[in-house]
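Teaching note: in complex prediction, the entire set of molecules is handled at once rather than each chain in isolation. The prompt given to students was simply: 'Predict the structure of this complex.' The entities are:
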Amino acid sequence: MKKMIIISAIVILLSIILIPSMAILFLSNDDSDSVKCSAVSGTLTESSLEAYLEDKGVFKGHAKDFFEYGSKYDVDPALVVAICMSETGRGTSAAVVKRNNPGGLMGNGGGFSFDTLKQGIEAMIENLSRNYIKMGLTTPETIQPKYCPVGASNDPTGLNSNWLITVNFFLDELGGLSCESVASGTGSYIIPVKNPQVSSGFSDRVNPVTGIQESHKGLDFAQQIGTEILAADDGIVVFSGYGASGSGFGGYGNVVLIEHKKNKEWTLYGHQSMLLVKNNQKVKQGQVIGKVGSTGQSTGPHLHFEIRKEKMGAQVDPAPILGLN
Ligand SMILES: [Zn+2]
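The expected output is the structure of the full assembly:
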């Protein structure tokens, strides 16, 4: 009896010590730049997936497995289901019907077999997590070259080249990726043009002599027409188009606004001659997003660059941030 009490005391003590430290582990993990998947954050729900799988062969009734293991291994259920649909001809291939292998998993002795489809689904998701998601391959575009290389020896008829098209087709039906699979940013900015020529600095003040508001809420780089404009950091394009008056971007001409989640900031690139990105496009730091021009309220070719604390304003001086002072 005494022994039991001592053991219970040790267990309780260990839980008190271990549980909070595990929680800290999870929290700090959550802060990283890696893919953040949540089985509940996307447009796909377990019940909407169940309805989708109603006419998908052997997958009917398995929505809960995709959500359970998607959550366990931090893999987007929409991504998994799209790949399954593509690999199994909507749940009808021999591999999935006879061998419960939903993802085309191959070993040395050919395709794997599983006792139940639930086990096959878990194995596939665990594999995706370990060999792809955790290595930063989180979209069909980045997964395809490794998962299903075009020209592979096991693909003599060249079906692999269709993989990306079919996976994206099913992903579209499922409402797209539900994970935040874009890098949230490095947290620092690069100068958005090579060989920068600053022609006008940031000012936001009332002239003490004239009393006139002198406001230039960005940095101007006088560059030749057609100079490449670079994304200052990774992010998502939240506006790309001509800034019509009343749009909130009047005067900027052809303009791009990029959201940088890590910094909770936005960068703006105005007066472009050519826009090379679209709304909702993910961009990488240094990616060419457009070309210098003189569109909108501009007197000559230049890039007007802003760093914003809010989407529609709260500009700060980019010069010290870019090391241009
Ligand atoms: Zn300007």
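Point out the following to students. The chain has nine helices and 14 strands. Residues 200, 216, 218, 220, 304 surround zinc ion (CB under 6 Å).
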